[in-house]
Design a protein that fits this description.
The structure is a homodimer. Helix content of chain A is 27%, strand content 23%. Chain A is built from 19 helices and 40 strands. In chain A, helix 7 crosses helix 8 and helix 11 runs antiparallel to helix 12. The first copy, chain A, is globular, with a radius of gyration of 26 Å. The two termini of chain A are 43 Å apart. Chains A and B meet through strand 14, strand 15 and strand 28 of A and strand 14 and strand 28 of B.
Chain lengths: 783, 783
């Protein structure tokens, strides 16, 4: 939301007016060049309230630096125990908070577990305070109060007035460099704190080592090495100040002593090397009224020299507004790929914000020269591709990577190369499960890299020379016997519940992944792999309990587990979804699922009851990550395992129920407000779901080339593909009530089926939907 | 000492006989190629008893890998307090110990403080024990008893029979790779332990992070990152086994949990990634009787891929005896540079062992491709030079680097490039004070890189293109105001005792270093620097107290410190030498010192009394590092500040007293036995002193081209210089009593002075001494 009007006018200096003028001018340029301003519809605050886990800070599309405010530094572990309050701070920012601790340079967007928050920078005036203080008494630390009235967020721009210090803080970025502009009051005691102890999901031993080197009076380098979700992760930095500091120093909070000083130095002040596990540094200045101090903060995974190279290459000047403008042009270019009209501006804001959130990760992960630290800890060079990291694959295989295959195939191609590079560097070797910063964190279940590769291969997005690599990496990954029950899964045909947790979820997801491998093998005519995995792909049958008409947990001896509550998620063989939801997880073969479940009518009723039953509070409490708003009956939109469920009506005799349901979900589960996400955005998966559905179709089974037709929300959409083709979508008679498709025409020809193929979309042309307030029950009858 | 005869014959298998035959054959090859076998005179055990701090293990000359047994792993800090027992284990081995803990890959030789001991490997059979156990009950841990009767050490070869396990262990090495050969008994439970917790001068928080990656069933990589004497130091490894292990695992001893496993794996067994602060790994085998398992253990400062490259390049095969032989040929080649005859074989052993100890550090510090981690933490490539580390400069500027200028100018040239590279990477910027593994540990005092560079420059060993770099780096280093009293030293002309410790020692050593800079500046015609430092070089005058006829501590207000005891070292303004000794520290200008001290006769008497007074026990206890045997009167040979003192008689009317004194020191302070060093060898300085003196001369003031003449110990010596010239030294009438030089002839011309110049030596020819039992008091009268 652009709070332009509220921008605190009292502290508006002439300089600030000027920057607003420059901004408006830059928007003008955007308009002239791209004819439309899309970034105006992005509200980076969406999802920052409650559990969206998004952040409002400044970043480029898929940028390595994601520079954003932290509103509370919650320890992940307190007194040896998990601190449940930390969960709200996965992305560092909570909209209801009233203080800002500082601005850090790395964030996940929407994840359900966390890490990062590297290199917290905070400007302050007055007595130097080297601790963040408490939100209840901000004056005891370096944090400051702030008001949303004096805060603004746009793509690649964030601004906040730090009222305790009368400092206006502005952030922008290039891909690898965070750019800070602080406007100070007149003071002889301005300090910029660099807190190396701060971090997201922190715990006492999280910092493995930190290092700061003051190269000269405007340049500082260093690194932070952590353990935690990433087993061991090092981020290097180079920090350049626009003005020389007059004094600097640090305080160390760990007991370890650098045993080499021999008392020759007062290490704490003006000594250019600072090292230890826990330290906070500061840089001191005198400032005139409204004097600006700018900071460029570059990151690298390889070295401080890499960070310095990134800094010098990406921002060789001090023109903050230029970098902001370039970033906003870049965002506008990305957002312009789908040019929509909607029945109201709120939907447009929800849409473009979702598109924005879809483009926040994976992030570019290499220096400007292609160097990056690989999974094996060695420095590698990305040859002929851009290396990416942050792969939340259990989430993103469903819709985010399929979305990329449609509108970001160039980037997704490189993301696939990044998965394969990870595989090459893996000791197991395995494709990523959940990887970030050259670490496998093994989060969640399955081996969904396989799905992502299959989808890219089937849709010809993958580099042809990587087809075989992708297939053999997938087959090898799926045969890692010691991984999460694979050995028994292969032997028994299912993961036994007495030998592994979430046994049914794993069996079902492995079966789907195995189907994906089969798709690849068939396309590449590898009959041996196709046969092996074609067989494995049927494993879902082994956990279908006919008596219970449900997927159910089974023991190693073949018997069904006795204690079994279809509504319960925990300890029942499922994860982030109960048996009700997971029993519908056969995206690759809905027709087979329907057969198992008793035929089309029974299945339709089953789906109906899913959406209409009431979930008792005792079960709701087991449902992770989401609010009451995130569920409809037993259907949980805030978690992923059900994301394909609303489309399953398409395989029954009542496909119009899909149309009504997806419109309802779009209306009720998404909005353009701060609490506009009903659960974690999950690295863009929730947002990507929305993008597809707003356009009227959804990839129910990535790895196939089909998109199931739902019900479009837009009035019109123009998708500009990277191949140069354009698809124009027209939705006739669109309004809130007309959720039912009456008629579909593709390039003037009526189609009477409930799917579109990837080629049909990407060859461009005109796709026309005619809507009505009553179902056309004939639609799809030829399917 | 070569205990060939004692080698435990019971366990001698045919294979072992074979290896002995191969060894004898290789010695044969040495004889054929180089005509003489010098390595037979080297006893690596010299200095391993008491405080020599040497190690008996296997290494190449200046090799990065110094693979040697640890006899006790003493923690440096116990219950938060310094553990005085750790000091004896600076090099890991104490001759009187009865157990061996294992074999680690990095060691200092002779230093007075410590670090390293990376990657302890220990073979064992029977129940797997993952702790070292106590020396009092070795059966409780993986350590083993051993006997010196079943132990052998030669250059590049170490062997010991681990009697608790009936394992014969042999070690050899290439420059970057340690090579282990373990001969096992028949067992189904052979284990090779890799202890990443073990280290020299260990303390609880010393390990910052460790990592092990099992690449396949014969290859393991990883690293150890430590803090401590080196602020932060990472050593990477690649370990190759000659036989696949059947099982492996590890135990973690720190509480930190890798929070990414999600309970998917039993991390402790057969899981190929191990990480944490404190861990011990093991690799399991079945073995037949006398089965050999070999290990190649490569190191790198840059990466595991660097270590792997080093491994593959240096030892691409499994021929242990070949590597041993190549290393012994290399050692023989180095030792052959000085070919001596002595009046008995013991002196020869003492001499060649000293030469061996002189060639153990600095060590080569780069991968085979020239890559190394620099002081700035970045990877650098050594262009046109070999990069070295371990510069114990307060010790080694005196005689070790001057010795290199004479017989290792090629290496010393590269060492000088290494110092300058350190300077280029230093943030201060400063040349090294005491540096190892890309860390400045700031140990001891002065800025003696300056002396080392000056000596190399004056003697034309330094690369001509580095002359100006050396001068400006030296001048800049000496002007680092915040370093150890420099600001006040420049302002007051001395380091004030109320503002800094060891104030007099620092003032005197700064003055000497400043004189060295002056020598460089004068040679390079830089009158500005020559003037600046020529003036600073006179600072010694400011701490000479005429009333006390002594160098003495002075306060910032110019007054002399009242409490002052010339015999005391501690808290009196001195370090590793009391006022008696330090008052004689003006190596650059003995004649000026003599003037200050009241003229030649008074000075001679003063020297006499130094060597004849008894040092009371209360003062002896303050004298660090040395045994009672290491002092003569008040003269402390076991510490360095007096190493030039015996030569000062040369500037009086009684130069023959120098001759008697140096012979006495050689006879009483050095021997070919395990306790053959009277103090720490100090990275070769003590040994280098011996080499010079055995040849009859000594570099009293490095930075000048003169060597003061002492009294040779050898009967003959042939020095082969790298320029192709040879100097033949003949000592006529040599015996134990004839310590007085009667006559000196250089190339047939009598010289009646008490010094030789560097050019005179390196142009080669014949130097002849004629000895007698009574002084020739005329000798040097024309000086």
């Amino acid at each position: 939301m652009l709070n332009c009007g509220n921008f605190h006018s009292f502290i508006m200096s002439f300089k600030k007016y000027l920057s607003v003028i420059v901004f408006c001018f830059s928007i003008g340029i955007i308009s002239a060049q791209q004819s439309k301003n899309f970034i105006q519809y992005v509200n980076p605050f969406v999802g920052t309230k409650n559990m969206g886990h998004t952040f409002p800070g400044a970043t480029r599309p898929f940028g390595m630096v994601q520079l954003s405010p932290e509103t509370d530094a919650q320890a992940y572990v307190v007194d040896g125990k998990y601190n449940p309050n930390a969960y709200a701070y996965c992305a560092g920012y909570q909209y209801n908070d009233t203080t800002i601790v500082g601005f850090s340079h790395t964030h996940f967007s929407g994840t359900g577990h966390s890490d990062l928050g590297d290199f917290l920078v905070m400007p302050m005036v007055g007595e130097l305070l080297l601790n963040p203080g408490m939100s209840s008494s901000p004056e005891t630390g370096y944090r400051s109060r702030f008001s949303h009235k004096e805060e603004k967020a746009e793509p690649n721009y964030y601004q906040v007035y730090l009222s305790d210090y009368k400092i206006n803080a502005e952030l922008t970025s290039s891909t690898r460099v965070g750019f800070h502009r602080y406007t100070f009051p007149k003071t002889d005691s301005a300090n910029i704190v660099l807190d190396l102890m701060s971090g997201i999901y922190n715990f006492d031993e999280k910092n493995v080592w930190t290092f700061v080197r003051v190269e000269n009076d405007t340049l500082v380098t260093g690194y932070r090495q952590t353990q935690g979700w990433a087993r061991t992760r090092t981020v290097y930095f180079a920090l350049s100040f626009s003005k020389p500091f007059s004094l600097y120093g640090h305080k160390k909070y760990d007991e370890q002593v650098y045993r080499g000083f021999w008392r020759k130095f007062d290490e704490t002040k003006n000594f250019p090397e600072m090292a230890g596990r826990q330290l906070r540094a500061y840089f001191q200045f005198e400032t005139e009224e409204t004097e600006e101090i700018l900071l460029k903060f570059a990151l690298s995974s390889t070295s401080t020299s890499g960070a310095l190279k990134n800094l010098e290459t990406e921002i060789p000047h001090w023109n903050f507004d230029k970098i902001k403008k370039e970033g906003q042009l870049e965002w506008n270019h990305e957002l312009a790929k789908i040019d929509i009209e909607t029945i109201n501006v709120a939907d447009k804001e929800t849409f473009y914000t979702a598109l924005y959130h879809s483009f926040l990760s994976p992030i570019e992960y290499m220096d400007v020269d292609g160097a990056y630290k690989g999974l094996d800890g060695n420095i590698h060079y990305a040859k002929d591709f851009t290396n990416y990291t942050i792969f939340s694959l259990w989430d993103t295989y469903r819709a985010l990577h399929p979305l990329f295959n449609l509108i970001q195939p160039g980037r997704n191609k490189d993301m696939m190369e990044s998965l394969l590079a990870h595989y090459d560097q893996s000791v197991h070797p395995m494709l990523p499960v959940w990887s970030h910063y050259a670490n496998e964190n093994w989060c969640m279940i399955g081996y969904h890299s396989v799905s992502v590769l299959a989808d890219a291969l089937i849709k010809d997005v993958l580099k042809p020379e990587s087809y075989q690599r992708a297939l053999s990496a997938s087959a090898q990954t799926a045969n890692t016997d010691y991984y999460d029950g694979i050995e028994l899964y292969k032997k028994l045909g299912f993961v036994p519940d007495d030998k592994n947790t979430s046994s049914v979820s794993k069996t079902l997801e492995y079966a789907y992944d195995d189907w994906c491998i089969t798709q690849m093998a068939e396309k590449l005519n590898d009959s041996s792999i196709a046969q092996e995995f074609g067989k494995r792909a049927l494993s879902y049958q082994n956990v279908f309990n006919k008596a219970r008409i449900s997927m159910a947990p089974r023991l190693e001896n073949g018997e069904w587990r006795k204690e079994f509550d279809k509504l319960s998620t925990h300890g029942q063989g499922f994860i982030e979804g109960n048996a009700w939801n997971y029993s519908l997880y056969l995206p690759q073969s809905p027709e087979k699922l329907i057969a198992l479940m008793g035929g089309k009518k029974a299945f339709e009723l089953h789906l109906d009851s899913l959406f209409t039953q009431h979930l008792d509070d005792k079960y709701f409490e087991q449902t992770e990550d989401i609010t009451r708003d995130g569920i409809i009956g037993l259907y949980v939109h805030g978690n992923e395992p059900g994301h394909h469920i609303p489309f399953l009506y398409n395989w029954t005799n009542a496909p119009w129920k899909t149309q009504a349901r997806v419109r309802m979900i779009m209306e009720s589960m998404y909005s353009n407000s701060n609490d506009g996400l009903c659960g974690n955005d999950d690295a863009g998966q929730m947002s990507a779901w929305y993008i597809f559905n707003a356009l009227g179709f959804y990839p129910v089974a990535p790895g196939s080339d089909r998109y199931a037709i739902g019900s479009p929300l837009v009035k019109t959409a123009k998708i500009s593909f990277e191949n140069g083709n354009k698809l124009q979508i027209y939705v006739r008679n669109q309004n809130r009530e007309n959720v039912y498709i009456q008629n579909i025409e593709l390039n003037g020809k009526k189609i009477n089926r409930l799917y579109l193929t990837h080629n049909e979309l990407t060859q461009g042309g005109i796709l026309e939907f005619k809507m009505g307030s009553k179902p056309n029950k004939d639609l799809g009858s030829s399917d």
